[in-house]
Amino acid sequence: MKRSNKVGIYIDAVDVTMNGGFGLRYDILRKFAIRDGCITSRMNVYLAYDKDRAKEDQTYRQKTNRFCEVLRDFEYKVIERPIKNYQDAEFKDKVNKSLLEMEMAADIITQAQAMDRIVLLTNQENYIYVVNALQNNGIRVELIGFDNVPHHLKKVSDLFISGYTIPGLLPVKSPYEWGTVGSRVRGVCYDFSHNDGYGFLRYLYRIDEHLWITDSRLPDSPYKTVFAHVSQFESDFDSSFLPSRDLIFEFDLVQNEKGLVAEDIVLISAP
After folding, report:
1. Global confidence as pTM
2. Range 184-269 has CATH code 2.40.50.140
3. Contact, 179 vs 172, CB < 8 A?
4. Which of 12, 37, 48, 201 has minimal Cβ neighbours within 10 Å of its Cβ?
């Protein structure tokens, strides 16, 4: 039985946006975080912004304000911190610095004591130490990332899941609902025969507590498996890298006489 049934969500907004997470749906993120019956205890978004630019650039200022307003609608707390500009003494270059990363780490450590699970969105490898500290206190850490996620940060987390593969978390150009025939989804190629020229892609089609049941043949699995022929991968893709759980593909779900198949398979993220 769970101690408190509480989950915390901590996001470095600029870091995530600059590494593939542009357009992230924070309402879907919340839905993912509470998928196993948890309730949200803390939902913090850390936003570094340029005060000097905000004074001069009306568009930048309006976009920042609108972003914060939307997050507050979803009950996230937005911690805004200015970027400080320094002049590098040796190279005479302007250097932008913010203490936001340190503040976020301190908040996680102090606030997580009453939680069972932390959902973390960052690309900063230094958070390995934060993850280890949380786990030493019996707290589960789930990492969501898109591009350029440090390998060791993935490895120490209890769960790493690519945000590209979470249904609805990022916009996908398709008139059909994710997972339905004709829709465009994202997933990984977990099995591939180079001799036969085909393999299988796996994609998440619903958000629930059974993410660990990756065998799509089992009734409780939230995953689906789809046939993929080498001819459907983009022409310049090197299939020698298959199978791989690190490569994220986007593809169409098509129904034919043999069943569900993947077409127009495009690589969208690689380590």
Report:
1. 0.90
2. yes
3. no
4. 37
